[in-house]
Amino acid sequence: MEDVSAVSSAGERTRSRVRYFVLFMLFVVTTLNYADRATLSITSSSMQKELGLDPVQLGYLFSAFAWAYVAGQIPGGWLLDRFGTKTVYAWSIALWSFFTLLQGVVGALPVAVLAGAFFLCRLMVGFAEAPSFPGNSRLVAAWFPTAERGTAAAIFNSSQYFATVLFAPLMAYLTHAHGWRSVYFVMGGLGLVLAAVWLVVIHDPKSHPRISRAELEHIERGGGLVSLEQKAVAKAPLQRGALKQLLANRMMMGIYVGQYCITTLTYFFLTWFPVYLVQERGMSILKAGFVASLPAVAGFIGGVLGGVISDGLVRRGHSLTFARKTPIVIGMLMSTSMVVCNYVDSQWLVVAIMSLSFFGKGVGALGWAVMSDTAPKQVAGLSGGVFNTFGNLAGITTPIVIGYLVKESGSFAAALVFVGANALLAIVCYLLVVGEIRRLELKQA
Fold this sequence. Notes:
Its main location: membrane. The chain is mostly helical.
């Protein structure tokens, strides 16, 4: 093994746990990432009354983030491969936080132009957030051995649920007590502080000042790509034909389409779920903000549990294919339970069913672990970008489709069927299309 000059000499014989701190930072950053996406779902009822928006217009406003987020995925993945995760991610956090804060500023504009300016800000938030999840995938691939990767990816991915648990009540309170614009000032300010912290504490495995040689060897022996970031710093050119090979591979396409279906569930909970509680179930905005956190708690528990189960199966000798697919299939089956809400009236029963559905969604949300297992080493960022492009197309289609369904039917019944059907389609992708889960080797041009 080559000399690692940055490894702490005091810890040569003792395995440090620096990778867990890196995972903690991923969890914190991704929590804020999802909270900033969800700001509109909490403030939308107040904005809808003030601006006179109908469900379809609100659906398009919800989708603004995803249009730019999807457009930025492949460029964002290329930037990560080209310039390294630390620098690109720091710029990403700072920019999305700035445009989150700016949404509060444009809230002071006249009503006639406010909606358009707000739409543009949401677009820019989406574009700035584009490198975040491919960056998460790169850091997990670099910092964690294969047998720990499922849990690590599940933990950072479960932050989407924790974001609702932590921030939905806060944002509901701010909207109720200080108006919807205050939400954007507070959330944007938090992100700008976090961007500065990220630059100070994040490093790649081979240059981290506190990692021991024992931990570095443990990561590398277990399949961690410890030199991944150093290759990025070397500015390796984008391999020609890499994108074409990714899209032509059956396994990768099955994973990509499956992620679209799973992310449809995510965007229902991120966008229309609080509106569903207010308009379909008669809750106040303040109550809906707190109630929305209950399914999110279940989703968080399910998200962590799915990764733990998957890695446990790997350690017990099961194939990576079986270990990743089993929680995905079981979790998606549980997610279809949300359709039962169409047949019950009790608020507490609706919340219980949605909690079960969100728990299942968490268990099955192992797409980023699968991506860390399968992405070609040379283009890990690009592959993550393509994966997230497919997944977040659901951020465009889901809010708009649900907006039309609600407007035409006057209820959310068809919307819940639409979301549940996507969970079933995700199962089909993983069982019938993906096949064996393994790292894709690119053919040289």
